[in-house]
Amino acid sequence: MTGTIIRIAVDAMGGDRYPDVLVEGSVAALERFRDIEIVLVGDETKVGDYIARTFNERASSGKKGLKESLGPRIRVVHAHEVIEMSESPGRAIRSKKDSSIVVCNKLCRSGEADAVISAGNTGAAMASSLLYMGRLEGVSRPAIMALFPSEKNYVCILDVGANTDCKPGNLYQFGVMASIYAQYILGYSQPRVGLLNIGEERSKGNELTCEAFEMLEKSGLNFVGNIEGRDIFKGMADVVVCDGFVGNVLLKFGESIFSFITHTIKKKTAKNLSRVTGALLMKPVFKEIKKEMSPEDYGGAPLLGVDGVSIICHGNSSPVAIMNAIRVARAFVIEDVNTLIKNELSRKNFIPNE
Amino acid sequence: MTGTIIRIAVDAMGGDRYPDVLVEGSVAALERFRDIEIVLVGDETKVGDYIARTFNERASSGKKGLKESLGPRIRVVHAHEVIEMSESPGRAIRSKKDSSIVVCNKLCRSGEADAVISAGNTGAAMASSLLYMGRLEGVSRPAIMALFPSEKNYVCILDVGANTDCKPGNLYQFGVMASIYAQYILGYSQPRVGLLNIGEERSKGNELTCEAFEMLEKSGLNFVGNIEGRDIFKGMADVVVCDGFVGNVLLKFGESIFSFITHTIKKKTAKNLSRVTGALLMKPVFKEIKKEMSPEDYGGAPLLGVDGVSIICHGNSSPVAIMNAIRVARAFVIEDVNTLIKNELSRKNFIPNE
């Protein structure tokens, strides 16, 4: 790969703390990877100022020469609009053509960037990638993939929100895309693919799952059959496919577990000395569990199936999470995941009916 | 209600430890409620022996005269077949017409019992209640309701498995049935009804949820709009309606949380003295959380919308859970929940299209 530079567009105006988190994450990624360039898209003055401040702060804490060494690999592209978290995605991306997230995706379309990282309005990030990158050849429905913790390794679940109604062929394609991601980005060998369902037997479920079961069985994927809600945390599959309605409900429910558990622990611990002492001693454990349950080390949720690389991060991402999203985007480009997906889909006979 | 006796049929051959748990739970309920009679259905010898043993054990631990005082209110009805947990429900209830669960439901149909309690094969319990009790007038699809813990009170979620595909009118009816249950059995005043969805706005979701939103809005129920996965544990609604596919995935996922959290805590605590000490001090907290997350005090999952009372318990139910299921069944009969549901549905103009 010598000589190849990977250019990553980062929406500097998305997320709960912009541009700070995005700039810091980008600078950290530039330090770590010598083969990337970052394009920060947003308010030129604000973003430029924050970059200068970040370099200065690092210099005063002993890291001198960053401006000189990293400066040439970071640039700002101005975008004068911002899509807020609360805006309706479809309308926003049509009316705000100069918003930071839309400009990021246009840069990918024109070939000026290889990947987009965003932490803003999820729907707008998804819709603009769909619109400007387009679908990957052979993919009928791109999908958002999220990672769930489990007793074994992280589990890839998709779709978690791009498609509320799915056809069996879509679920099969989700399985193909996530298998390749799990293998080439997460390093799982022969990822086990499961179909989210309400019983173990093949006849269980609704029309969608019954047909999808047959397709997945014949697919050549390492299909392990139906996966029930209780099997996810047990790590019974590496990839779990479902429609975007169920996946989204599950994702958001899953994200609320840690806060519910800590709320309950606090309620039951208050004013009891031995319990409070126990909770203090257990604090590092809870901290580690919290981290495991919001896997920021794994770098956001990829939108799989678009003709480009689009990684969608949480609004509350830390600089580390942004850095990891950039790391994943870089790996996605280097491993050429999209070509692998295209090739795999073209080898198969299944053409999902749309 | 003076003089009215409520007769409850208990499937003595279901669950992980039968007939023990069922007999013990029944005896506990008889001690607590003077206006109930229990019909234990199953192997006459086994069940009879266990009843005698239970009375003897209690006598030797000081509770004398139970046989004389409770004996007349408990009887055994023989059933020579058992439906195992692993059997296909539909086939099993057709081929095993003398199985304990089918006999329980036949007793309800013939008027010899007012309610059925079962802890065996959930599908068989549901299918036999549907077949022998039939649907309640005006209800197009009966549904299983489960209770989820939350930061506020327990949340009623339905359907958690009876109907994999639903129409908007079904979701509306689920809202009516659960509201009445929440009000008359759980004592919630003006239960807040939410629609499980993937966004707050009314336009979010799939065809089913968009239409159901409109229906629920006009229904006269205390409808609080869309509820996302993350809102359940926050207790943003008292009743959450969804189709049985999503509900079942969520139920089973929810049931696996506690075991995942304890698995993770154990892994992170092992061999670290201060963490182990903390965990020991916190043990009572975890025990209380476990109890809260498997709400056996609330007595199983009612199958709402059948022309009878059918409470389905977990296979691993304790005698306390069975006692509570009997308590709920008794309240269901006393409050005449089914008449309340029938009246409420007949007052409305919505006739769900089937």
Description of the structure:
Two copies of one chain form a homodimer. The first copy, chain A, has 354 residues and is an alpha/beta fold. Chain A folds into two domains: 1-139 and 305-336, Isopropylmalate Dehydrogenase; 144-293, Isopropylmalate Dehydrogenase, CATH 3.40.718. Chain A has twelve helices and eleven strands. Chain A has helices at 20-32, 44-60, 66-70, 89-95, 100-109, 122-133, 168-184, 207-217, 244-269, 273-293, 319-334, 337-347; strands at residues 6-11, 36-42, 74-78, 115-118, 143-148, 155-158, 193-196, 223-227, 239-241, 301-304, 309-312. The first copy, chain A, has an eleven-stranded mixed beta sheet, with helices on both faces. In chain A, strand 7 (193-196), helix 8 and strand 8 form a beta-alpha-beta unit. Chain A is globular, with a radius of gyration of 21 Å. The mean pLDDT of chain A is 92.
